[in-house]
Design goal:
The complex is a heterodimer of chains A (178) and B (727).
Chain A (H helix, E strand, L loop, with lengths): L1 H7 L10 H18 L4 H16 L8 H22 L6 H14 L6 H12 L3 H11 L5 H8 L3 H23 L1
Helix pairs in contact in A: 2-3, 2-4, 3-4, 6-9, 7-8, 7-9, 8-9
Chain B lengths: L1 H15 L9 H12 L18 H12 L17 H7 L1 H10 L3 H14 L28 H6 L5 H6 L38 H19 L9 H13 L5 H9 L5 H11 L1 H20 L13 H13 L4 H10 L2 E2 L11 H5 L3 H16 L18 H8 L5 E8 L2 E9 L15 E4 L5 E4 L20 H10 L2 H16 L19 H13 L4 H9 L2 H4 L29 E2 L2 H11 L9 H13 L2 E3 L7 E3 L5 H9 L1 H6 L7 H7 L4 H13 L5 H13 L4 H13 L2 H4 E2 L1
Antiparallel strand pairs in B: 1-3, 2-3, 4-5, 6-9, 7-8
Helix pairs in contact in B: 9-21, 9-22, 10-11, 10-12, 12-13, 13-14, 15-19, 17-18, 20-21, 20-22, 28-29, 29-31, 30-31
The chains are: A mainly alpha (178), B mainly alpha (727).
């Protein structure tokens, strides 16, 4: 074991690392994680890139998928927090901790691909009206008023409908992921 | 947790429903990587020793840690596709240093750079003239080198062992050899000796050593000691320091009129061991340690994980039984169980750790080091200490010991009603495997490093996270209780409690950077304390019967010790007793004595509730991550108003209520004697001539109404500065 650790810490730690493979293996997970902690898509793109740059410019060994994924997420989180702080925005670390915990339970193994699949199938179990509301919200980017008009409800009703739908999805995913 | 899942659902809905899929950034990243490094990868983005333009094996340290440090701190953190001017400047580090060396501002820049190097491997690269020296370790994180025989010598514990270690159920002697502990390897595998002194001198020898050690320093500094305090003064201070209140008039007079050369020793023994004072002794030290461990506001919030009653009950029982200090520390650090008295599995000791589990137990790490080791490591959570040898990795190595700890909450509605502290298998922050359970921490340049459990003296344990094999908190408790730091820290803390100043300032920041004022004395007391079985009462006895504790608080030119004034920043020489204000709790208890309310008390919980209500008016919690709080009990307006008009004072100065005043007023004595009694009761002295004159004037002004005059005098005495001072 001692030899193994010694080998791990050699100066030429990055030699032979296939950067392309590392990036392709983990980029989706990092990107999704950044979205989950509060980035929009373009910022998630930028920070994903920054994360890999920060890591790959140092001597690096890709020992196993899980350790590397966790490490990349930590770096991504640090970058996100640093950027928020520089922009004088409040960062609630407890909220990030909760996302981390949820990520460990649901998305740690495969960078969130299993969660995507579970969510897809759970969406099928939603009622038509709820699914329509979510599609208007997430695909069409409609306002709540537009969603309410489209599904024939009050704005509060539409809000409740979407909240219940998301709650249903969470519970459905929990069942499928455990 | 639920909120975290909701955020995940929300984010993934944007992908699944909104069609915002993760992009393929590999080409973009590889191009940016090549651009930043100024070198190229092979066509497949693979590094290799044969690749001429990118050879980490030959220059990875320099390339990665030097001129192309990660851009986490670069510029404003914008996208790296376009490299900023600042980043380009950073890449030309060598020429930058040359340019700076030629500029008129070179000295300033170098000072900044030196500070950065001292404070950590991170920081803006352009300002670091020695990138190699500031190079972080390779990533991803790996455990420190571990000798094969570490595992071989590591005993394993069963669940039964773990259960048996419940401090409430067995008489565990933490000073005994811990079968669970692997070989105590320090850095480079060297054996680090445990601190197990065996010397145990007689009390008289230790007290004589204290006296000679303190006096030797007086001779060196050419100062003299103040005269000995009067019996009344000494009696008042020893009551305040040992049981947290002033003596009653009876107790004071009994001591003053007692005969015998050893009457002071007899009083100390009575207060420490006498049945009549067991409860008060335990109450006083419970208060002091509760305030230390969880603060005055700990456990008062509805959603707090701490049960204040549980913490107090544990401490009270410990002090009642005079539990050895090392065992107390062992229990506090390694406790598991339920925090609430009366619940199944209750163990009040858990409340210390429960109060500090937030932020990955960073607070538990800092407070454990501070209270039990006398080390302030909290700032090394984020960077190396700028003024001493503490490194950031040491903080997280210490923190690793707490990462198996988990709080299980039970709610009733929105209120937390019960919390259980357990240890569970820890798979490391990567979640990869409990075989090598690592903790990640962030360097100042934004990169992450890893840490595994290593004690502050270099002793390390097996890094695996299986509780059944390695219970990290139990190991930490063992390491603390077998280190000399614990003994020294406690001696210093208690010395400061009784003498007003410790051997170091602050008392919980010890180390080579902060040498003690009396090193030999501190060493000897620490060894004697440990060798004598960490007996707190014995340590208190040594200090209270020593010469420096017996000196008058008067000092000045006439005593040739006017320069010994630590309040002005000088090193304490203990040539006189240093004045200090009573703690809020001491004042409260002393006012109870003045109203005789201490004689008719309810249950401990009821007393504590009343005291807590009274103290609330002075306590301010800052809500910082270090749990800082303060009291306005420092001569502030609220304090003055309370002393002038508070309910306790009103009761004390009402001659119709029970209390000192009623006793004095009802006695058939001349007024002059009554005034003497009031002064003795409050200040442990008789009134001076001007004070007697004033009292007579007051009596005359009241038209001969002696009771009203006594009420006025009593009010004035209780509101004097002298009353609230321990002198």
């Amino acid at each position: 074991m001692a030899k193994r650790y010694k080998d791990m810490n050699t100066e030429a730690a990055s030699v032979g690392v296939d950067f392309t493979r590392v990036i392709q293996t983990h980029q989706a997970g990092v990107w999704r994680y950044l979205k989950a902690i509060g980035c929009d898509s373009s910022r998630a793109d930028d920070l994903t890139q920054e994360t890999f740059l920060a890591v790959l410019q140092k001597p690096f060994q890709d020992y196993d998928r899980s350790a590397t994924a966790a490490y990349l997420r930590k770096v991504a989180r640090s970058l996100f927090v640093s950027q928020q702080r520089r922009a004088s925005r409040v960062v609630v670390l407890e909220e990030l901790d909760e996302v981390d915990e949820a990520w460990r339970r649901w998305a740690d193994k495969d960078g969130g691909q299993g969660l995507v699949d579970a969510l897809r199938s759970c969406l099928e179990t939603l009622r038509e009206k709820a699914r329509t509301a979510l599609e208007l919200r997430f695909r069409q980017r409609c306002s709540r008023a537009d969603i309410a008009a489209a599904v024939g409800m009050s704005q509060d009703g539409a809000k409740n409908l979407m909240q219940r739908a998301k709650q249903h999805l969470r519970q459905c995913i929990e069942r499928r992921m455990t | 947790m639920r909120a975290g899942k909701d955020r995940l659902v929300e984010a993934f809905l944007e992908e699944v429903v909104g069609g915002q899929n993760p992009p393929d950034l590999s080409q973009r990243v590889l191009e940016a990587l090549a651009k930043r490094s100024g070198k190229s990868l092979d066509g497949n983005g693979v590094t290799g020793g044969a690749t001429p333009n990118y050879s980490p094996s030959a220059g990875s340290g320099q390339a990665a840690g030097g001129d192309v440090l990660p851009q986490v701190n670069a510029g404003d953190g914008g996208p790296s596709g376009a490299v900023s001017v600042a980043a380009r400047k950073r890449r030309s580090g060598a020429s930058g240093v040359l340019w700076f060396s030629l500029s008129a501002a070179a000295a300033v820049v170098m000072s900044v750079a030196i500070y950065i190097v001292m404070s950590g491997p991170a920081g803006p690269v352009a300002e670091n003239p020695n990138p190699a020296g500031a190079q972080p370790q390779p990533n991803p994180p790996r455990p420190p080198a571990l000798a094969d025989n570490d595992r071989a010598t590591d005993g394993s514990s069963s669940d039964e062992d773990a259960d048996n270690l419940n401090p409430e159920t067995i008489d565990l002697d933490p000073r005994g050899r811990d079968p669970l502990l692997p070989r105590n390897n320090g850095p480079d595998g060297a054996q680090v000796a445990e601190f197990r002194p065996t010397e145990s001198s007689s009390d008289a020898d230790v007290i004589a050593f204290i006296n000679s050690g303190i006096a030797a320093r007086w001779r060196i500094e050419k100062v003299s000691a103040s005269p000995e305090a009067s019996d009344a003064e000494w009696c008042r201070r020893v009551y305040l320091d040992l049981i947290g209140r002033i003596p009653t008039l009876d107790e004071l007079q009994r001591f003053i009129t007692a005969r015998g050369a050893d009457k002071r020793a007899a009083l100390v023994d009575e207060l420490l061991n006498g049945e009549a004072y067991t409860e008060e002794y335990a109450r006083n030290w419970t208060t002091i340690w509760t305030n230390t461990l969880i603060g005055r506001s700990g456990g008062t919030d509805r959603n707090s994980l701490v049960n204040r009653q549980g913490m107090q009950q544990y401490l009270r029982r410990s002090f009642q039984r005079n539990k050895p200090y090392d065992r107390m520390v062992y229990e506090l650090v390694s406790a598991t169980g339920v925090n609430t008295p009366g619940e199944q599995g209750y163990n009040g000791a858990v409340n210390f750790i429960l109060d500090n589990l937030q932020e990955n137990a960073a607070t538990a790490t800092a407070k454990t080091a501070r209270y039990f080791l006398g080390m302030q490591v909290q700032c090394t959570q984020c960077h190396n200490h700028p003024f001493n040898d503490s490194k950031q990795n040491q903080f997280w190595e210490l923190n690793s010991f707490f990462r198996q700890a988990k709080a299980l909450r039970e709610r009733s509605g929105r209120e937390i009603v019960r919390v259980e502290l357990i240890d569970e298998d820890f798979a490391g922050e990567s979640g990869a495997s409990p075989e090598e359970a690592e903790v990640f921490y962030e360097l100042r340049n934004g990169l992450m490093e890893s840490a595994y459990p290593v004690f502050v003296d270099g002793r390390r344990i097996d890094p695996q996270g299986w509780v059944s094999s390695v219970n990290r908190r139990q190991r930490l408790a063992h390491l603390i209780t077998t280190s000399e730091f614990m003994s020294r820290a406690m001696v210093n803390r208690l010395w400061a409690h009784f003498l007003g100043h410790g051997f170091t300032k602050p008392i919980d920041d010890m180390g080579p950077h902060n040498p003690p004022s009396h090193p030999e004395l501190l060493d000897r007391l620490a060894r004697e304390f440990a060798g004598g079985g960490y007996d707190l009462k014995r340590l208190m006895r040594w200090i209270t019967l020593s010469e420096p504790y017996s000196l008058s608080s008067k000092h000045g030119r006439q005593y040739k010790n006017e320069e010994d004034d630590p309040a002005l920043g000088t090193t304490p020489l203990f040539t006189h007793f240093y004045l200090r204000q009573m703690r809020a709790e001491e004042l409260y208890e002393s006012l109870l004595v003045a109203t005789a309310a201490h004689e008719a008390r309810g249950s401990f919980e009821e007393q504590e509730r009343l005291k807590s209500d009274w103290l609330d008016q002075f306590t301010i919690a800052f809500g910082t991550d270090e749990g800082d709080e303060m009291t306005t009990f420092n001569g502030s307006i609220p304090q003055v108003l309370m002393m002038m008009n508070g309910a306790l004072i009103e009761r004390a100065v009402d001659a119709n209520s029970s209390g000192v005043l009623q006793e004095v007023a009802a006695a058939d004595r001349p007024n002059s004697q009554n005034i003497n009694h009031l002064y003795l009761a409050a200040l442990a002295r008789t009134p001076s001539r001007p004070e007697v004159t004033m009292a007579n004037q007051l009596l005359a002004a009241r038209g001969g109404d002696a009771t009203s005059a006594l009420e006025d005098i009593w009010w004035a005495v209780l509101n004097s500065n002298e009353f609230i001072l321990n002198h």
